[in-house]
Design a protein that fits this description.
Number of helices: 15
Largest sheet: 6 strands, mixed
Radius of gyration: 27 Å
Distance between the termini: 10 Å
Shape: globular
Bound molecules: adenosine-5'-triphosphate, magnesium ion
Number of strands: 16
Length: 450
């Protein structure tokens, strides 16, 4: 049996066609899960310490140095046995520190991985281990061989998690999948980044136990889904606005004829770009952005939780010379889970501002009395860049169509935002706006594709 997999920047989902019925795979009782994985670090056990020949050598060096120091300073001599015990203590402590560092640097315990929202909760609770969020957004970037291997392993874990859940719920060993792909991946390498992303996903799927996978453009999948539910033949523009990318397809759908896909367009921007802009405009000034000499990119490093090298760079920085109160706040943000909590606050605020005029996030994990507030107008100001890109792409699409579409089918999580809907409506004022399920349109189409 072939399943459809929507490996999304923010959320992932899977579904299969069983007879003429669509079955959505459940993850913790829901048809999608946050694309995040937590890998707990197995902390070393001090009882595992053994004095190897190499460590014995280090002990001998320390004992000799201590004896020389004793002679030089004329201090009260300690017995040979005492010097030896002290040296072993030092070597043991260094060994333990090295073990902890090694555990933290490695990709950690892949077998004990936890996925979804629970991954973020576990990371915040434990304060150690590795949290990986939105790995899809890294696939098209310039990766050193080791980073590429790590990201492939993480994608493989997520795909295996999906394959296992699907196999159990469908009661069949699932080995085939159609995986969604954006028209244009987020990339620092141009079109080659997209090729790399597909290579990584194909390799990850193989590691995850899939025998064969194919890829289908996400808006094309959403068009197939929309077709299945449309009685009358008409032209449509599918607009899928997700966390990482915006994807568009022009198609003829509905009725008894086969759907015909004419063209697809993509923009490597989505909801996470609005999150970043909101964080820079409303949250980071509380950490000294604009009021100190801390370079702007350090704040970007802190805000982009999905970018592992940027997160590592932020956590290594020394902010002790930054003027108060920003030094203490930046240091608190560097504490375990700080940037993850902040990002959760940013995204939640963005989502709340889709329905409310104002929203507040308590920054009590930074400073007891600190909080950040923003209004709908603040969010609109922060979204200007993304909304401008979206409007320009829609204009380009409109100019390329011989006839305006009869309908615009809106899907993707960001299509819940009224300011996004307004931009789409402005671009196609005469088309009927159809609101699809923002979360499940793509996966439903992927499952229907044979
Ligand atoms: N009510 C809301 N208002 C504004 N944004 C929202 C709302 N609900 C969800 N979002 C945003 O939608 C995005 C997720 O959408 P979706 O699940 O379609 O993305 P995805 O499929 O994971 O990503 P992609 O398709 O780009 O790989 C996130 O940025 C999320 O913050
Ligand atoms: Mg999507």
């Amino acid at each position: 049996m072939r399943i459809g997999i929507d490996f999304g920047t923010s959320y992932s989902a899977a579904a299969a066609r069983v007879g003429d019925r669509l079955q959505h795979i459940q993850f913790n009782g829901l048809p999608q899960f946050r694309t995040a994985a937590f890998f707990p670090v197995a902390l070393p056990d001090p009882a595992d310490f053994r004095l190897t020949r190499e460590l014995e050598g280090e002990v001998a060096v320390l004992v000799r140095a201590a004896k020389a120091e004793q002679t030089r300073s004329g201090a009260m001599p300690r017995s040979e046995a005492q010097l030896y015990r002290d040296a072993v203590q030092v070597v043991r402590r260094q060994w333990l520190e090295a073990q902890v560092k090694e555990a933290e640097d490695s990709a950690a315990d892949l077998d004990d991985a936890v996925f979804g929202e629970e991954a973020i909760d576990r990371y915040l609770l434990e304060g150690s281990g590795h949290l990986v969020q939105s790995p899809k957004s890294m696939l098209g970037y310039d990766l050193l061989p080791r980073a590429r291997q790590t990201i492939t392993g993480i994608a493989a874990q997520i795909l295996e998690h999906i394959r296992m859940a699907a196999s159990e719920q469908l009661d069949i060993d699932v080995r085939l999948a159609t995986i969604g792909r954006p028209v244009q991946f987020r990339s620092s390498l141009g079109p080659e980044g997209g090729e790399q992303a597909l290579d990584i996903l194909a390799e990850a799927a193989q590691i995850a136990g899939f025998e064969a996978v194919d890829f289908l453009e996400e808006p094309v999948a959403a068009a197939l889904h929309y077709h299945a539910g449309s009685d009358t033949r008409h032209s449509t523009l599918v607009v899928d606005i997700g966390g990482g990318t915006t994807d568009i397809a022009h198609a003829h759908v509905g009725g008894s004829e086969m759907p015909v896909i004419h063209r697809a367009w993509g923009l490597p921007n989505g909801g996470t770009d609005v999150d970043l802009a909101l964080s820079m405009a409303q949250f980071m000034p509380l950490f000294g952005r604009g009021d100190t000499r801390v370079p702007a990119h350090h704040f970007v490093d802190a805000a982009m939780v999905q970018d592992m090298p940027r997160q590592r760079a932020f956590h290594k920085r020394d902010f002790s010379e930054v003027p108060a109160p920003y030094n203490g706040r930046l240091q608190a943000l560097q504490q375990d889970g700080g940037t993850t909590r902040l990002y959760r606050g940013v995204e939640t605020m963005k989502m709340r501002l889709s329905e409310h005029q104002a929203s507040r996030h308590e920054l009590d994990y930074i400073d007891a009395a600190l909080s950040v507030a923003a209004s709908r107008a603040d969010l609109t100001a922060a979204s200007v860049d993304f909304l401008g890109r979206l409007a320009r792409l829609l204009q380009e699409v409109a100019a390329e169509l011989a006839m305006p579409p009869d309908s615009v089918f809106l899907t993707g999580g960001m299509s819940r935002a009224p300011y996004v809907q307004a931009v789409v409506r402005d671009a196609f004022p005469h088309a009927r706006l159809v609101h699809g399920d923002p979360s499940l349109g793509v996966v439903s189409g992927l499952a229907s594709h044979l």
